[in-house]
Amino acid sequence: NAGVTQTPKFQVLKTGQSMTLQCAQDMNHEYMSWYRQDPGMGLRLIHYSVGAGITDQGEVPNGYNVSRSTTEDFPLRLLSAAPSQTSVYFCASSIRGPVEQFFGPGTRLTVL
Amino acid sequence: GNSVTQMEGPVTLSEEAFLTINCTYTATGYPSLFWYVQYPGEGLQLLLKATKADDKGSNKGFEATYRKETTSFHLEKGSVQVSDSAVYFCALSDRGFGNEKLTFGTGTRLTIIP
Q: How far apart are alpha carbons B71 and B46 in whole angstroms?
């Protein structure tokens, strides 16, 4: 099993550009989530999904969109990048709920 | 709302030293408590957990006891190794109104020097 994979590992964007962070898992997990990690703030939940076709907002959803068309994939879209979205983004998955999630290696995003 | 407070870092220790990383929490219900570890360049991994008061979670020589009376879940290890260098996150899970949510602390960076 590859576990949770994220691409790209690093990305630099200009303000206003859009992009999609990819996340995939091969463990047949129903629950998937996206977090951002900022210095001194721990991890904050952006969006989550409890199964294919179902998504919901987390703590900091503004500026991000998600969809869950398959069990395996949970992409995160930045609609119009802003410097405040400079962060490290983690995707995670679990059989059920946010507890005992498996985390991907992260994507470091810089918005200039 | 729920919150987790953990000691400010960074923490630097010599190999074989005793480690304590403090964590206290505020929660309205009866949370489960967790410690996650993030090694350099990797995602978070669950290190240990405790689901009710007085439970002790343990893994890889680390221990933490769920203390309801002091709302604490301090992480301890008797003899640290260089390979323990990482960022440690305390977290709680509280099932509020059927929606389980994980709340993280800010993380404590630990560096062990040989």
A: 20
Q: Going by C-beta distance under 8 Å and a sequence separation of 6 or more, which residues neighbour residue B71?
A: B24, B25, B26, B27
Which is it for strands A87-94 and A102-103: parallel, antiparallel or unpaired?
Answer: antiparallel
Q: What digits encode the pLDDT tens for the residues B72-101?
A: 999 999 999 999 999 999 999 876 544 567
pLDDT one-digit tens code per residue, A54-75:
999 999 999 999 999 999 999 9
Residues of B with a Cβ under 8 Å from any A Cβ are 4, 32, 34, 41-46, 49, 89, 93, 100-102, 104-107
* Contact residues, chain A, for B44 at CB < 8 Å: 43, 90, 92, 103
Contacts of B100 in chain A (CB under 8 A): 97-99
